[in-house]
Amino acid sequence: MYELKSRMIRIKTLPLGLKMSFNRWMGLLTLSMMLPAFAEMDPAHTSLSSQMSPLSAQASNTEILSDALARADRLHLADSPYWHRLMVYQKKGAGFESAVTKSSFFLASNGSHDPKAELDATLKGLFNASTSKPDDATACLFPVRRDWLVEQLGLKDSDLPITPCPALTQWLQGIQPQHATLVFSSDYMNNPSSMFGHTLLRLDPDANEQTRLLAYAINYSAQTDNASSASFAIKGLTGRYPGSYDIMPYYEKVKEYNDFESRDLWEYSLNLTPSETQRITKRVWELRFVSFPYYFLHSNCSYQLLGLMDVARPSLSLQDQFPVYAIPTDTLRASLIKAGLLEKVAYRPAFASRLNAQADHAKPPVIKAAKTLVEKPNAQLEGLSIKQQAQASEMASDYVYHQFVGHHIDKDVAQPKLRALLIRRSQYDVPDTRVAVPARLIDPAQGHLTSRILLGGGEAQGHGFADLEWRPAYHDLLDPAGGYRNGAGINFLQTRLRVQQDQLSIQQLTLLSIDSLSPKTDFFDPLSWNLALGIRQVSQDQNAFSRDKTHAVSYVQGGEGQAWQLGSALCYGLASAALEAGKFLDHGWRVGVGPSLGCLWNMPAFSLQIQSTQLFWQDQHAWENQSKVGAQIPLHLGSNDQRQALRVSWQQNRQSSQQSHEFSLSWLRYF
């Protein structure tokens, strides 16, 4: 720098021609040094103000504010998409309306629907530090707004009043946000709001993998009540619960999801910079007293976290990709793959998965001994080696802990057992025998897309037909299992139209169907169940079974039972019941009950399901058997291996000596 200054001084003594040549050379040199910086600069962070001279430090506070307001007008900052993003403005008629209803979020009386008024009020607030409490200053309440306006207007710290913000500073120092990790929790069928999974955002203070549990996590959730299951679902679907952000230690969420609810966790490290991660944290500070209507299918945990990432990196527009509904796995793909935010992925298996893995590697006598120790921690173990006794002690203590965390046994019972089992384990001089659970080859972000169309044709009741089906979400038992839990399926608003004998009809309209087939293991005996409701065609005509005619009925059908993993097959047996209603039925309705048996194979090369359901219908006092076979194979075309598939299905309905058949071949496209 000193040499450059000396050379510039000497320019004054050079002849005019040499002076001009040297100045041009210096200009080119300066430009060449600036080009790499411009090439790396994010256009979303660059404003026209960067080309302007900074506001004069000698001007008075009023003059600087006046200049800032004028400059904001010239730059049309109130019309900036990023300003609208910060204020959560949504288009309403010819104007705007913020999704935030809390008045304290706005500094202008009409700020909820006037972007310019709110921007001007924010600027005036930044230049007015005369508040009774330092934390009540505008810069302390809305730090992201402050940082963006300072950047866009080219303001310096010396241009603004000093605002120490002790509460915000202490909060940021406690969290120390440097890196961000998007965490996906697998589905939890016992909670309607988590049937599609759940996402949260972890804020890591450093790159040390050993301290991840001590980090803080941002969670967005519905503030629910103790309503019944039906009321809970209705309120969640219609946005009648408030949703809000909170920050808590990550280990608390791991304990809740991993241990209590036995849900696998996938941790996706994001390539957000430390400043972008800090911007996310400051944004949560701005929204800490704000709530939004929570919708299970749209304005949910995943959708709101996308909004934080949009604020962190202005070049993103992740929320705009989900105008109707937001499925957590779809938001994973949007942020990690399409937006290129993924840095690396880690798998944290559920506690039950770890215990099942231990049992899979243990011999039957060891498992039997572990179950004995669960009941009698000080029992004598005969015929086992020291290593096997240690293994049995570990499985027993892990199972007791799982039961305690899941509130299946009382604290007064669990603690003495755990203490005795841990003391017992310490007496065996062998290393820890627990085994690592291998991560699945395909993580949730790489699973098939959740929307699907189907084009097919076949023969039913002796006549050919053509089908067109649309399913907005999510996954059925024959869809590719990679990235999804085997035996779990949810279909929402699945609609199939059929043309047969020049007649167009609704073959099936599934409002909602759920399958939860969880296999019995050595330590766990989960309930398997299914539920479906909607409209379907049945082989009925004039209150009797028909081989060549069908009629539409509305229905609700479900079942409960048991599932077993038999090699590569997941087999199940359920006690089923169905209620159908339609004008072609006797009395307009009927009820059927009976068993349902089946097996499911989900392999990389194909999926296969065989099922037989027997229902005794009360209106006809007769059994009806429905047998069906379905198979699907992926079409590996180019790079979109999981976007297309072929499906073959066969179904037979039989009552007494009468029967009807249906066969179809379909092409599926996921999008």
Automatic annotation (TrEMBL):
Residues 76-152 form the DUF7843 domain. Residues 169-334 form the Lnb N-terminal periplasmic domain. This is DUF4105 domain-containing protein. The lineage of its organism: Bacteria, Pseudomonadati, Pseudomonadota, Gammaproteobacteria, Moraxellales. It comes from the Bacteria. Residues 443-670 form the DUF7840 domain. Residues 346-436 form the DUF7842 domain. InterPro entries: DUF7840, DUF7842, DUF7843, Lnb_N. It comes from Aquirhabdus parva.
